[in-house]
Amino acid sequence: MTINPGKGANMSQRAVMQHLSLTDWKLVNRLPIPAGEMTLSRLVQRGWIEIQGRGHKTEGRLTEAGLNAMRSRI
């Protein structure tokens, strides 16, 4: 389920998404910028990223919708 699908990503959300890939899963605790649970959960709710795993093994990747949100105007 997505919330506010028409609303664009803010700067911190864009920064997280820029470091994720469409094809490869990346550990979210190794992103060059901090990404807290709230930020990640909002990105997942909007359908912009996918998450798998838990704790220090949590991985994320960008979705096509996330790529489009990242490319949209602020």
Characterize the structure shown.
It is a single chain. The chain is an alpha+beta fold and 74 residues long. It has a single domain, classed as Winged helix-like DNA-binding domain superfamily/Winged helix DNA-binding domain (Arc Repressor Mutant, subunit A, Orthogonal Bundle), CATH 1.10.10.10. The chain contains three helices and three strands; from the N terminus they run αβαββα. Strands 1-3-2 form a three-stranded antiparallel beta sheet. The chain is globular and about 35 Å long. The N and C termini lie far apart (23 Å).
Estimated structural class: alpha+beta
Number of strands: 3
Strand content: 5-15%
Q: Give the strand order of the largest sheet, numbering strands 1, 2, ... along the chain.
A: 1-3-2
Unreliably modeled segments? none
Determine the number of helices (DSSP H or I, runs of at least 4 residues): 3
Q: Determine the fraction of residues in helical runs and give it as a percent range.
A: 25-40%
Report how far apart the termini are.
23 Å
How many structural domains can be distinguished in the coordinates?
1
Topology:
Blueprint: H1 11-18, E1 26-27, H2 37-45, E2 49-52, E3 59-62, H3 64-71
Antiparallel strand pairs: 1-3, 2-3
Helix pairs in contact: 1-3
